[in-house]
Amino acid sequence: MIDKNWKIETLAIQAGYTPKTGDSRVGPITQSTTYAYNTAQEMEDVFAQESQGHLYSRISNPTTQAFEIKMAALEGGISAIACSSGQSATMVSLLNIAQAGDHIVSGSAIYGGTFNLLRHTFKKLGVEVTFVDLNAPAEVIEKAIQANTKAIFGESLGNPAMNVMDFDKLSTIAKKNKIPFIVDNTFPTPYLCRPLELGADIVIHSATKYIDGHATSVGGIIIDGGKFDWTTGKFPGMTQPQADFDGKSFVEKFKELAYINKARSEFIKDIGFVLSPLNSWLANLGLETLHMRMDRHCENAQKVAEYLEQHPKISWVKYPGLKSCESYELAQKYLKGSSGVLTFGVIGGREASEKMMNSLKLAKIVVHVADIRTCVLHPASMTHRQLNDEELKAAGISPDMVRLSVGLENCDDIIADIEQALA
Ligand SMILES: *Cc1c(COP(=O)(O)O)cnc(C)c1O
Question: Which atom, in ligand 1's list, is nearest to the CA of 155?
Fold first, then answer.
Protein backbone atom coordinates (compact mmCIF):
# COMPACT_ATOMS: atom_id res chain seq x y z
CA MET A 1 0.00 0.00 0.00
CA ILE A 2 1.26 3.46 -0.92
CA ASP A 3 -0.60 6.57 0.23
CA LYS A 4 -0.60 9.28 -2.46
CA ASN A 5 0.14 11.93 0.15
CA TRP A 6 3.24 10.27 1.57
CA LYS A 7 6.40 12.33 1.36
CA ILE A 8 9.71 10.92 0.21
CA GLU A 9 10.95 10.09 3.73
CA THR A 10 7.85 7.99 4.37
CA LEU A 11 8.08 6.28 0.97
CA ALA A 12 11.74 5.42 1.60
CA ILE A 13 10.67 3.46 4.68
CA GLN A 14 7.17 2.19 3.87
CA ALA A 15 6.78 1.75 0.10
CA GLY A 16 7.11 -1.62 -1.61
CA TYR A 17 6.09 -3.98 1.15
CA THR A 18 2.99 -4.11 3.36
CA PRO A 19 2.60 -7.11 5.66
CA LYS A 20 -0.70 -8.91 5.86
CA THR A 21 -1.74 -9.86 9.37
CA GLY A 22 0.81 -12.17 10.96
CA ASP A 23 3.42 -11.63 8.20
CA SER A 24 6.98 -10.59 9.00
CA ARG A 25 7.15 -6.80 9.55
CA VAL A 26 10.33 -6.57 7.48
CA GLY A 27 9.94 -7.70 3.87
CA PRO A 28 11.45 -11.19 3.52
CA ILE A 29 14.30 -12.31 1.27
CA THR A 30 12.55 -14.71 -1.08
CA GLN A 31 15.54 -16.87 -1.86
CA SER A 32 13.73 -19.13 -4.32
CA THR A 33 14.24 -19.70 -8.03
CA THR A 34 10.69 -20.72 -8.61
CA TYR A 35 7.02 -20.42 -7.59
CA ALA A 36 4.45 -23.17 -7.21
CA TYR A 37 1.01 -23.27 -8.88
CA ASN A 38 -1.85 -25.69 -8.32
CA THR A 39 -3.12 -25.91 -11.88
CA ALA A 40 -1.50 -25.72 -15.31
CA GLN A 41 -4.07 -23.09 -16.31
CA GLU A 42 -3.00 -20.76 -13.49
CA MET A 43 0.62 -20.92 -14.62
CA GLU A 44 -0.37 -20.53 -18.28
CA ASP A 45 -2.23 -17.32 -17.43
CA VAL A 46 0.84 -15.88 -15.75
CA PHE A 47 3.02 -16.86 -18.74
CA ALA A 48 0.59 -15.13 -21.10
CA GLN A 49 0.66 -12.16 -18.69
CA GLU A 50 -3.11 -12.47 -18.35
CA SER A 51 -2.71 -12.66 -14.58
CA GLN A 52 -0.05 -11.38 -12.19
CA GLY A 53 2.42 -13.67 -10.48
CA HIS A 54 6.00 -14.83 -10.29
CA LEU A 55 7.28 -17.74 -12.36
CA TYR A 56 11.04 -17.84 -12.20
CA SER A 57 13.47 -15.49 -10.44
CA ARG A 58 15.27 -14.55 -13.66
CA ILE A 59 12.01 -12.84 -14.67
CA SER A 60 10.78 -11.47 -11.35
CA ASN A 61 11.06 -12.09 -7.61
CA PRO A 62 9.00 -10.71 -4.70
CA THR A 63 12.00 -9.16 -2.89
CA THR A 64 13.23 -7.51 -6.07
CA GLN A 65 9.69 -6.39 -6.84
CA ALA A 66 9.47 -4.63 -3.45
CA PHE A 67 12.67 -2.73 -4.34
CA GLU A 68 11.27 -1.85 -7.77
CA ILE A 69 7.97 -0.57 -6.35
CA LYS A 70 9.82 1.55 -3.79
CA MET A 71 12.17 3.06 -6.36
CA ALA A 72 9.29 3.87 -8.73
CA ALA A 73 7.53 5.59 -5.81
CA LEU A 74 10.67 7.51 -4.77
CA GLU A 75 11.32 8.82 -8.29
CA GLY A 76 7.62 9.49 -8.95
CA GLY A 77 7.58 7.05 -11.89
CA ILE A 78 4.93 4.49 -12.81
CA SER A 79 7.12 1.40 -12.97
CA ALA A 80 10.69 0.23 -12.44
CA ILE A 81 12.95 -2.69 -13.23
CA ALA A 82 15.98 -3.76 -11.22
CA CYS A 83 19.15 -4.84 -13.03
CA SER A 84 22.30 -6.67 -11.99
CA SER A 85 24.39 -3.45 -11.91
CA GLY A 86 24.35 0.22 -12.81
CA GLN A 87 26.13 -0.72 -16.02
CA SER A 88 23.37 -3.12 -17.04
CA ALA A 89 20.73 -0.52 -16.10
CA THR A 90 22.38 1.98 -18.49
CA MET A 91 22.70 -0.64 -21.21
CA VAL A 92 19.13 -1.88 -20.90
CA SER A 93 17.66 1.62 -20.68
CA LEU A 94 19.20 2.48 -24.06
CA LEU A 95 19.17 -0.82 -25.97
CA ASN A 96 15.51 -1.21 -25.06
CA ILE A 97 14.84 1.51 -27.65
CA ALA A 98 17.98 1.59 -29.84
CA GLN A 99 19.27 -1.26 -31.99
CA ALA A 100 22.01 -1.81 -34.60
CA GLY A 101 21.95 1.15 -36.99
CA ASP A 102 20.61 3.54 -34.38
CA HIS A 103 22.31 6.46 -32.65
CA ILE A 104 22.38 8.02 -29.19
CA VAL A 105 23.51 11.43 -27.95
CA SER A 106 25.29 11.25 -24.61
CA GLY A 107 26.89 13.77 -22.31
CA SER A 108 30.69 13.58 -22.39
CA ALA A 109 31.21 14.20 -18.66
CA ILE A 110 29.99 10.84 -17.42
CA TYR A 111 31.14 7.88 -15.35
CA GLY A 112 34.14 6.09 -16.94
CA GLY A 113 32.39 2.71 -17.08
CA THR A 114 29.45 4.25 -18.91
CA PHE A 115 31.78 6.01 -21.33
CA ASN A 116 33.50 2.72 -22.20
CA LEU A 117 30.17 0.94 -22.57
CA LEU A 118 28.80 3.56 -24.96
CA ARG A 119 32.00 4.34 -26.82
CA HIS A 120 33.31 0.81 -27.40
CA THR A 121 30.79 -1.93 -26.54
CA PHE A 122 27.78 -0.17 -28.08
CA LYS A 123 29.84 0.37 -31.24
CA LYS A 124 30.43 -3.39 -31.50
CA LEU A 125 26.66 -3.85 -31.22
CA GLY A 126 26.11 -1.38 -34.06
CA VAL A 127 24.83 1.52 -31.97
CA GLU A 128 26.78 4.75 -32.52
CA VAL A 129 27.07 7.34 -29.76
CA THR A 130 27.97 11.01 -30.16
CA PHE A 131 29.37 12.60 -26.99
CA VAL A 132 28.60 16.26 -26.39
CA ASP A 133 29.16 18.72 -23.59
CA LEU A 134 25.67 18.91 -22.12
CA ASN A 135 26.52 22.30 -20.62
CA ALA A 136 27.09 23.66 -24.16
CA PRO A 137 24.42 25.90 -25.77
CA ALA A 138 21.27 24.15 -27.07
CA GLU A 139 22.26 24.65 -30.74
CA VAL A 140 25.51 22.73 -30.20
CA ILE A 141 23.70 19.80 -28.60
CA GLU A 142 20.98 19.77 -31.24
CA LYS A 143 23.57 19.55 -34.01
CA ALA A 144 24.50 16.09 -32.67
CA ILE A 145 20.95 14.77 -33.15
CA GLN A 146 20.41 12.67 -36.30
CA ALA A 147 17.34 11.10 -37.94
CA ASN A 148 18.24 7.77 -36.28
CA THR A 149 18.90 9.23 -32.81
CA LYS A 150 16.83 7.37 -30.21
CA ALA A 151 17.71 9.09 -26.93
CA ILE A 152 19.56 11.86 -25.12
CA PHE A 153 21.47 10.47 -22.14
CA GLY A 154 23.39 12.17 -19.35
CA GLU A 155 24.09 12.34 -15.62
CA SER A 156 22.12 14.73 -13.41
CA LEU A 157 25.30 15.30 -11.40
CA GLY A 158 28.35 14.10 -13.33
CA ASN A 159 30.77 11.52 -11.90
CA PRO A 160 33.38 12.82 -11.26
CA ALA A 161 33.11 16.19 -13.05
CA MET A 162 30.37 17.34 -10.61
CA ASN A 163 28.67 19.35 -13.35
CA VAL A 164 24.91 19.80 -12.89
CA MET A 165 22.60 19.04 -15.80
CA ASP A 166 20.46 21.82 -17.27
CA PHE A 167 17.14 19.99 -17.24
CA ASP A 168 15.05 22.70 -18.94
CA LYS A 169 17.39 22.96 -21.90
CA LEU A 170 17.79 19.19 -22.42
CA SER A 171 14.13 18.27 -21.94
CA THR A 172 13.14 20.96 -24.45
CA ILE A 173 15.57 19.53 -27.02
CA ALA A 174 14.34 15.97 -26.39
CA LYS A 175 10.66 16.96 -26.70
CA LYS A 176 11.26 18.91 -29.88
CA ASN A 177 12.98 15.88 -31.45
CA LYS A 178 10.45 13.36 -30.04
CA ILE A 179 13.16 11.29 -28.35
CA PRO A 180 13.30 10.25 -24.69
CA PHE A 181 15.53 12.08 -22.23
CA ILE A 182 17.24 9.46 -20.05
CA VAL A 183 18.96 10.59 -16.86
CA ASP A 184 21.47 8.77 -14.65
CA ASN A 185 20.48 10.12 -11.23
CA THR A 186 23.03 8.07 -9.24
CA PHE A 187 24.83 10.86 -7.35
CA PRO A 188 21.86 13.00 -6.24
CA THR A 189 19.40 10.08 -5.67
CA PRO A 190 15.66 10.87 -5.81
CA TYR A 191 16.04 12.67 -2.48
CA LEU A 192 18.24 15.45 -3.91
CA CYS A 193 17.04 15.58 -7.53
CA ARG A 194 13.66 14.88 -9.18
CA PRO A 195 14.45 14.18 -12.87
CA LEU A 196 10.93 13.05 -13.85
CA GLU A 197 9.45 16.28 -12.47
CA LEU A 198 12.17 18.23 -14.33
CA GLY A 199 11.33 16.84 -17.78
CA ALA A 200 13.20 13.52 -17.94
CA ASP A 201 11.35 10.51 -19.36
CA ILE A 202 13.40 7.69 -17.82
CA VAL A 203 15.73 7.60 -14.82
CA ILE A 204 18.45 5.07 -14.11
CA HIS A 205 20.66 4.46 -11.08
CA SER A 206 23.66 2.54 -10.00
CA ALA A 207 22.03 1.21 -6.82
CA THR A 208 25.57 0.31 -5.77
CA LYS A 209 26.16 3.88 -4.60
CA TYR A 210 23.91 5.92 -2.25
CA ILE A 211 20.85 3.67 -2.69
CA ASP A 212 22.55 0.74 -0.98
CA GLY A 213 24.73 3.35 0.66
CA HIS A 214 26.89 0.94 2.65
CA ALA A 215 29.09 -0.50 -0.12
CA THR A 216 27.71 -4.01 0.25
CA SER A 217 26.08 -4.80 -3.10
CA VAL A 218 26.25 -4.05 -6.80
CA GLY A 219 22.91 -3.29 -8.44
CA GLY A 220 21.04 -1.04 -10.82
CA ILE A 221 17.53 0.16 -11.55
CA ILE A 222 15.52 1.83 -14.32
CA ILE A 223 12.42 3.91 -13.59
CA ASP A 224 9.92 4.94 -16.29
CA GLY A 225 7.93 8.16 -15.93
CA GLY A 226 5.31 6.58 -18.21
CA LYS A 227 4.61 9.76 -20.21
CA PHE A 228 6.72 9.28 -23.35
CA ASP A 229 4.82 8.58 -26.59
CA TRP A 230 6.43 5.54 -28.26
CA THR A 231 3.97 5.44 -31.18
CA THR A 232 5.51 8.09 -33.45
CA GLY A 233 7.09 5.45 -35.70
CA LYS A 234 10.60 6.05 -34.34
CA PHE A 235 10.48 3.03 -32.01
CA PRO A 236 9.40 -0.04 -34.03
CA GLY A 237 10.39 -2.40 -31.19
CA MET A 238 7.58 -0.90 -29.14
CA THR A 239 4.91 -0.96 -31.84
CA GLN A 240 5.63 -4.08 -33.92
CA PRO A 241 3.59 -7.27 -33.31
CA GLN A 242 5.09 -9.76 -30.82
CA ALA A 243 4.70 -13.54 -31.24
CA ASP A 244 4.42 -13.84 -27.44
CA PHE A 245 1.29 -11.69 -27.25
CA ASP A 246 -0.76 -13.11 -30.15
CA GLY A 247 0.46 -10.42 -32.50
CA LYS A 248 -0.03 -7.47 -30.18
CA SER A 249 2.82 -4.98 -29.76
CA PHE A 250 4.32 -4.00 -26.39
CA VAL A 251 2.40 -0.72 -26.52
CA GLU A 252 -0.89 -2.44 -27.39
CA LYS A 253 -0.40 -5.05 -24.71
CA PHE A 254 0.96 -2.91 -21.87
CA LYS A 255 -0.03 0.69 -22.76
CA GLU A 256 2.04 3.13 -20.63
CA LEU A 257 3.87 0.17 -19.02
CA ALA A 258 5.30 -0.94 -22.39
CA TYR A 259 8.86 0.29 -21.84
CA ILE A 260 9.47 -1.55 -18.55
CA ASN A 261 7.71 -4.69 -19.76
CA LYS A 262 9.82 -4.74 -22.91
CA ALA A 263 12.98 -4.36 -20.80
CA ARG A 264 11.88 -7.21 -18.56
CA SER A 265 10.98 -9.45 -21.46
CA GLU A 266 14.05 -8.88 -23.67
CA PHE A 267 16.86 -8.03 -21.26
CA ILE A 268 16.02 -9.47 -17.87
CA LYS A 269 14.24 -12.62 -19.10
CA ASP A 270 16.16 -13.22 -22.35
CA ILE A 271 19.64 -11.94 -21.51
CA GLY A 272 19.54 -12.38 -17.74
CA PHE A 273 20.68 -9.05 -16.29
CA VAL A 274 18.78 -9.94 -13.13
CA LEU A 275 19.43 -8.59 -9.62
CA SER A 276 19.68 -11.25 -6.91
CA PRO A 277 17.04 -11.25 -4.13
CA LEU A 278 19.71 -10.67 -1.47
CA ASN A 279 21.11 -7.62 -3.29
CA SER A 280 17.58 -6.26 -3.77
CA TRP A 281 16.96 -6.71 -0.06
CA LEU A 282 20.18 -4.89 0.86
CA ALA A 283 19.43 -2.03 -1.55
CA ASN A 284 15.97 -1.81 -0.02
CA LEU A 285 17.40 -1.77 3.50
CA GLY A 286 19.76 1.02 2.50
CA LEU A 287 16.88 3.07 1.08
CA GLU A 288 15.16 3.12 4.47
CA THR A 289 17.68 5.73 5.67
CA LEU A 290 18.32 7.44 2.31
CA HIS A 291 16.93 10.82 3.35
CA MET A 292 18.90 10.96 6.62
CA ARG A 293 22.13 9.81 5.02
CA MET A 294 21.88 12.23 2.09
CA ASP A 295 21.27 15.24 4.35
CA ARG A 296 24.39 14.38 6.36
CA HIS A 297 26.50 13.56 3.29
CA CYS A 298 25.66 17.02 1.92
CA GLU A 299 26.35 18.73 5.24
CA ASN A 300 29.73 17.01 5.65
CA ALA A 301 30.77 17.57 2.03
CA GLN A 302 29.89 21.27 2.24
CA LYS A 303 32.11 21.65 5.33
CA VAL A 304 34.98 19.73 3.72
CA ALA A 305 34.65 21.75 0.48
CA GLU A 306 34.76 25.04 2.41
CA TYR A 307 37.76 23.80 4.40
CA LEU A 308 39.64 22.77 1.25
CA GLU A 309 38.79 26.02 -0.55
CA GLN A 310 40.66 28.12 2.03
CA HIS A 311 43.63 25.69 2.37
CA PRO A 312 46.90 27.11 1.00
CA LYS A 313 48.03 23.72 -0.41
CA ILE A 314 44.87 23.21 -2.49
CA SER A 315 44.88 24.57 -6.06
CA TRP A 316 41.16 24.10 -6.82
CA VAL A 317 37.98 22.55 -5.40
CA LYS A 318 34.82 21.62 -7.26
CA TYR A 319 31.57 21.14 -5.36
CA PRO A 320 28.27 22.57 -6.65
CA GLY A 321 27.44 23.75 -3.12
CA LEU A 322 30.30 26.27 -3.32
CA LYS A 323 29.49 29.72 -4.75
CA SER A 324 32.76 29.53 -6.72
CA CYS A 325 31.55 26.44 -8.62
CA GLU A 326 30.39 26.97 -12.22
CA SER A 327 27.45 24.62 -11.47
CA TYR A 328 26.33 26.58 -8.37
CA GLU A 329 23.34 28.26 -10.10
CA LEU A 330 22.14 25.03 -11.71
CA ALA A 331 22.54 23.22 -8.38
CA GLN A 332 20.42 25.91 -6.67
CA LYS A 333 17.77 25.47 -9.35
CA TYR A 334 17.66 21.68 -9.69
CA LEU A 335 19.19 20.03 -6.61
CA LYS A 336 18.24 19.97 -2.96
CA GLY A 337 21.92 19.29 -2.21
CA SER A 338 25.07 18.33 -4.08
CA SER A 339 25.73 14.86 -2.55
CA GLY A 340 28.83 13.83 -0.62
CA VAL A 341 31.21 13.83 -3.56
CA LEU A 342 33.67 16.59 -4.41
CA THR A 343 36.89 16.91 -6.36
CA PHE A 344 40.05 18.92 -5.84
CA GLY A 345 43.67 19.30 -6.89
CA VAL A 346 46.74 19.70 -4.69
CA ILE A 347 49.32 22.39 -5.54
CA GLY A 348 52.19 20.52 -7.17
CA GLY A 349 49.90 18.63 -9.56
CA ARG A 350 49.38 14.92 -10.01
CA GLU A 351 52.32 13.81 -7.88
CA ALA A 352 51.30 16.00 -4.95
CA SER A 353 47.68 14.81 -5.25
CA GLU A 354 48.77 11.16 -5.15
CA LYS A 355 51.09 11.81 -2.22
CA MET A 356 48.22 13.40 -0.34
CA MET A 357 45.97 10.39 -1.09
CA ASN A 358 48.67 7.99 0.11
CA SER A 359 48.94 9.92 3.39
CA LEU A 360 45.26 9.63 4.33
CA LYS A 361 44.51 7.28 7.23
CA LEU A 362 40.77 7.33 7.80
CA ALA A 363 39.86 7.79 4.12
CA LYS A 364 40.80 4.71 2.10
CA ILE A 365 41.69 4.55 -1.58
CA VAL A 366 38.90 2.50 -3.12
CA VAL A 367 37.15 2.21 -6.49
CA HIS A 368 33.85 2.87 -4.79
CA VAL A 369 32.16 6.22 -4.26
CA ALA A 370 29.01 7.45 -2.54
CA ASP A 371 28.76 5.39 0.62
CA ILE A 372 28.99 5.92 4.36
CA ARG A 373 32.81 5.55 4.56
CA THR A 374 34.97 8.44 3.40
CA CYS A 375 37.08 7.34 0.43
CA VAL A 376 39.23 8.74 -2.37
CA LEU A 377 40.20 7.85 -5.90
CA HIS A 378 42.39 9.27 -8.66
CA PRO A 379 40.08 9.20 -11.72
CA ALA A 380 42.75 9.77 -14.41
CA SER A 381 44.73 6.66 -13.43
CA MET A 382 41.84 4.54 -12.13
CA THR A 383 38.16 4.69 -13.21
CA HIS A 384 38.86 6.76 -16.33
CA ARG A 385 42.26 5.32 -17.31
CA GLN A 386 41.03 4.08 -20.72
CA LEU A 387 40.26 7.64 -21.82
CA ASN A 388 42.81 9.51 -23.91
CA ASP A 389 43.83 13.07 -22.99
CA GLU A 390 41.14 14.66 -25.13
CA GLU A 391 38.43 12.36 -23.74
CA LEU A 392 39.64 13.04 -20.19
CA LYS A 393 39.32 16.77 -20.79
CA ALA A 394 35.79 16.32 -22.20
CA ALA A 395 34.92 14.20 -19.15
CA GLY A 396 36.04 17.10 -16.94
CA ILE A 397 39.04 15.25 -15.50
CA SER A 398 42.46 16.78 -14.94
CA PRO A 399 45.60 14.75 -14.10
CA ASP A 400 45.74 16.22 -10.58
CA MET A 401 42.08 15.51 -9.75
CA VAL A 402 41.33 13.71 -6.49
CA ARG A 403 37.74 12.50 -6.11
CA LEU A 404 36.75 12.58 -2.46
CA SER A 405 33.58 10.82 -1.35
CA VAL A 406 32.73 12.33 2.01
CA GLY A 407 31.19 9.77 4.34
CA LEU A 408 29.13 9.94 7.50
CA GLU A 409 31.94 9.88 10.07
CA ASN A 410 32.22 12.90 12.35
CA CYS A 411 33.21 15.73 10.01
CA ASP A 412 35.93 16.96 12.40
CA ASP A 413 37.65 13.56 12.05
CA ILE A 414 37.36 13.66 8.25
CA ILE A 415 38.87 17.14 8.13
CA ALA A 416 41.60 16.20 10.62
CA ASP A 417 42.58 13.29 8.36
CA ILE A 418 42.82 15.60 5.33
CA GLU A 419 44.72 18.14 7.41
CA GLN A 420 47.42 15.65 8.45
CA ALA A 421 47.66 14.24 4.91
CA LEU A 422 48.21 17.70 3.44
CA ALA A 423 50.77 18.46 6.14
C1 LIG B 1 29.06 3.58 -10.53
C2 LIG B 1 28.25 4.28 -11.53
C3 LIG B 1 27.65 3.60 -12.61
C4 LIG B 1 27.85 2.11 -12.81
O5 LIG B 1 27.24 1.40 -11.81
P6 LIG B 1 27.73 -0.07 -11.30
O7 LIG B 1 26.70 -0.37 -10.27
O8 LIG B 1 29.12 0.08 -10.78
O9 LIG B 1 27.65 -0.97 -12.49
C10 LIG B 1 26.88 4.32 -13.48
N11 LIG B 1 26.71 5.65 -13.34
C12 LIG B 1 27.26 6.34 -12.34
C13 LIG B 1 27.04 7.81 -12.23
C14 LIG B 1 28.06 5.69 -11.40
O15 LIG B 1 28.65 6.39 -10.41
Answer: 13
